[in-house]
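quick one before i forget lol
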Amino acid sequence: MPDDPVEELRQARAHVERVVARVRGIASKLEDWEHVMLTGARRFSVGASAPPRRAAINLELWPSAEEIDEALTRYERARSAARRQQGN
């Protein structure tokens, strides 16, 4: 974590944007959900005997709610710290 609040804000924002890009990529594939194969699941595998699949989603790469929460929390804290610095 950088000492400079503005740099921390930049890094936190970039991290949130990477997480959001992953979610958007998954959401895009799910628009054609009948042709998506889920992989990486420990409990089930969808698509093995179904019609041909056009896309695959690796569930192990799916961001968890905790990961999304941590990214957004880091961003909010960094934004507050950067604002405090600018106010001084």
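fyi The beta strands are 36-39, 55-58.
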